[in-house]
Design a protein that fits this description.
Length: about 220
């Protein structure tokens, strides 16, 4: 048992070291791409500029995945601290969507964002809530049908902020695995979803993944 625990610890240490080493080249790529997008080296055509924008979004998503590994490591060691500030949830969501916009093109999917209520300023760690939103949206794109519409619902009032993403899961996948939520947690984006739970709990909030008719729902609540 001790050997298994030691191997698990060494694996986490190795992944954290690898993720840390990947941060610098990713950051360098992003800066180079941003300079290209800003036309610092010459005028770009419309299609070329659009492609560079999509590559930037893809690199930001990769940066998020690397940060997920580092955050998991810090959380396990008790070194993770939130930076709580007042933020506009609309801007946080917009930034998150822009960072992974290209993912919707893979299966020609659409993200339909709806706001309910009149309060939008809440106290939370903006970077970490962006991480939660990016992970949940990415998971929704991954498991939803082609040409589908993914509902992104934001409900707010004086007491709480509720964010829910409803995904029309691929029928064949759902029939094969009756517990779709559990299987999503175990899949490629599993680490991200586990971290989502931890981040929301650190905010003293709630998080829930559940099956619904013809799909599944991922929801988090902040107070």
């Amino acid at each position: 048992m001790l050997n298994i625990e030691k191997e698990a610890f060494n694996s986490i240490e190795f992944l954290a070291m690898l993720a840390h080493d990947m941060k610098t080249p990713i950051k360098a790529q992003l800066r180079a791409l941003e300079l290209l997008y800003e036309e610092s080296f010459g005028k770009l055509g419309k299609e070329t500029k659009a492609m560079i924008f999509n590559i930037i979004a893809s690199n930001k998503y990769m940066q998020c995945l690397v940060d997920n590994v580092l955050n998991e490591y810090r959380m396990n060691k008790g070194e993770f601290v939130l930076n709580i500030t007042n933020n506009d949830i609309r801007k946080t969501i917009e930034t998150s969507i822009n960072n992974i916009g290209i993912l919707s093109d893979v299966k020609n999917q659409k993200l339909n964002v709806k706001y309910f209520g009149n309060r939008f300023i809440y106290s939370y760690d903006e970077i970490e809530i962006q991480r939660v939103i990016i992970n949940l949206i990415s998971n929704a794109f991954e498991y939803s049908k082609e040409n589908s519409i993914i509902e992104f619902l934001v409900k707010n009032n004086a007491d709480k902020l509720e964010v829910e993403i409803i995904s029309p899961v691929n029928v064949s996948y759902k029939n094969k695995n009756s517990k779709i939520t559990l299987n999503c947690l175990k899949a490629g984006t599993g680490l991200g979803l586990v971290i989502c739970k931890r981040i929301i709990k650190l905010h003293k909030g709630e998080v829930d993944f559940k099956n619904i008719q013809n799909g599944y729902s991922a929801k988090f609540i902040l107070y």
